[in-house]
Amino acid sequence: MSTASLIESERLPKNASYRCIVPAGEPWLREVRKGDILRIVDLEGNQAVDTLFYNLHDFSDRYSAQDTIREQKNIYLTTGTRLMSSAGNVLLTIVADTCGRHDTLGGACATESNMVRYAIDKGHMHACRQSFLKAIAEWDHGMEKRDITSNINFFMNVPVTPEGALHFEDGVSAPGKYVELRAEMDVLALISNCPQLNNPCNAYNPTPIEVLIWDGQEA
Ligand SMILES: [Zn+2]
Known about the structure:
Layout: E1 18-22, E2 27-32, E3 37-42, E4 49-55, E5 58-62, H1 65-72, E6 82-84, E7 90-97, H2 111-117, H3 128-139, E8 152-154, E9 177-183, E10 187-193, E11 209-214
Antiparallel strand pairs: 1-11, 2-10, 3-9, 3-11, 4-5, 4-8, 4-10, 6-7, 7-9
This protein binds zinc ion.
């Protein structure tokens, strides 16, 4: 992993306009305005934070893993990564990162994939896809299942081998590590703080995160 991407932020939590602890297994959804800074903190380390972003004014224009990877010619996300939308807009830019690598290939866990990957009797277990659907249903702005597309897994370690194999590994994050993003347009941020109990990426122990927002004019 390149250490060049490890950039700390000078922003102080006490100056944030919004702070929220998101328990393990819970969703979080909020509008983030152009110029605002969004920080996600891995409070206890090795947590997977499944995240989707949308153009706030057109939900059909949403985060695109494929466009983001192609634009930066790299499969990992870190400082400097511009998160691209399906319509070619820059939704947000990663401006600080003390973890160093985030995944956008592994996808979000679902009851279906839990059964395929782990065991058929895991089908009842709560998964990120349900958290996403619960959040957009409660928000009640017309989004539905088809709006849940390819996502980012902040703090998740999914290395790709030289042969192209995908590995879900132990996390590389640690308590207090964070990633910070600047909104380049008005966006909707949707997080599922992953409830997964079957994957070594979070040491089989999902933990809480903190989300902070600084207003653009004060950031
Ligand atoms: Zn998950």
